[in-house]
TrEMBL record:
Phosphoenolpyruvate binds at residues 48, 84, 196-197, 207. The chain holds residues 237 to 550 of 550 of the full protein. The keyword Transferase applies. This is Phosphoenolpyruvate-protein phosphotransferase. The gene is ptsP. Keywords: Cytoplasm, Kinase, Magnesium, Metal-binding, Phosphotransferase system, Pyruvate, Sugar transport, Transferase, Transport. It catalyses: L-histidyl-[protein] + phosphoenolpyruvate = N(pros)-phospho-L-histidyl-[protein] + pyruvate. Its cofactor is Mg(2+).
């Protein structure tokens, strides 16, 4: 059965009423691409480029990067591949971006903040991405991590456009960006919600600290309301809104995310089949109803419970 299922062409991700929801993979190296395709990835919603260079003492050359990005893009001809520029920070340091000791790395000089201080490195990365894109048939989307407001958005978008990159966005993972989602969506081609960091910052609980791990729950209504505001901004402006945090891999939460306005979901490839199956069980109206119940909940546990109860009662 599984051999047959693996060879049968998958229909694109969708809800029961046919509403399309792209099902994409989160990847950390081009070598993971084939397995993701075999598991049904329709493209890539998050390629974490910093994972390629964690051991590098010097900044990688344009050529070194071009080869890696082209290998990734070539695995997805005609498909969307979303590449995130380097998201370095004290917890995932890149020596060539100037490592610094920080007491609170999550609140430090990371993501776009570090790249802005090292603009030549960012320029080389954008150059390599533009060259790889020109040589491939994939549809390259480029985004920046840890953007907080319109000014940082404009900085990244205009720089990326200098290199001829066509589809440029940001990851919404800082609460400031969720609160200002309308201003940000106006200035981008798309927004991708990073629910791992959005949860850590909304709940003020370090995602790497075991003692506060229970706060790292994207079902929390405070997090869901942040997502809702981003979804509304995207819908109002006709901009795609993806989710690329771990939350998209939870089948029931995936339905809620679509109800909150997510148009595509990116996850570890192993989760794609279960999410695909759950989406097919609900219409958009049902997903929106479940989302409304979840945002009205008073805790993460309550949100899970009301959504599960509504599904088993329907
Ligand atoms: C996130 O923050 O949700 C995200 C997708 O990025 P990372 O886990 O790499 O911080
Ligand atoms: Mg993040």
């Amino acid at each position: 059965r599984s051999a047959h299922a693996a060879s049968a062409p998958l229909t694109p991700g969708a809800l029961a009423d046919g509403t399309p929801v792209s099902l994409l993979a989160n990847l950390g190296s081009p070598g993971e691409a084939q397995a993701a395709v075999a598991l049904g990835a329709e493209g890539v919603g998050l390629f974490r480029t910093e994972f390629l260079f964690l051991d590098a003492a010097q900044a990688p050359s344009v050529e070194e990067q071009r080869v890696q990005y082209l290998a990734l893009l070539d695995a997805f001809p005609g498909k969307k591949v979303t590449v995130r520029v380097l998201d370095a920070g004290a917890d995932k340091p890149l020596a060539f971006l100037g490592e610094t000791h920080e007491e609170n790395p999550a609140l430090g000089r990371r993501g776009i903040r570090a790249l802005r201080d090292a603009e030549p490195v960012l320029r080389d990365q954008l150059q390599a991405l533009a060259e790889a894109s020109a040589q491939s048939e994939a549809d390259l989307w480029v985004m920046a991590p840890m953007v907080a407001d319109a000014g940082e958005t404009e900085y990244f978008v205009s720089l990326a456009r200098e290199f001829g990159l066509k589809t440029v966005g940001i990851t919404a993972e800082v609460p400031a960006a969720a609160i200002l989602a309308d201003q940000i969506a106006e200035r981008t081609d798309f927004v991708s919600i990073g629910t791992n960091d959005l949860t850590q910052y909304t709940m003020a609980a370090d995602r790497l600290l075991g003692s506060v791990a229970s706060y790292q729950d994207p079902w929390h209504p405070a997090v869901l309301r942040m997502i809702k505001s981003i979804g509304q901004a995207g819908r109002a402006l006709g901009k795609p809104v993806g989710v690329c945090g771990e939350s998209a891999a939870d089948p029931l939460l995936a339905v809620v995310l679509v109800g909150l306005g997510a148009t595509d979901l990116s996850m570890t490839a192993a989760a794609l089949a279960d999410v695909r199956a759950e989406l097919l069980r609900h219409t958009l109206a049902e997903a929106q109803d479940l989302a409304a119940r979840a945002v009205a909940a008073t805790s993460a546990a309550d949100a899970r419970a009301v959504v599960s109860a509504a599904i088993s009662g329907s």
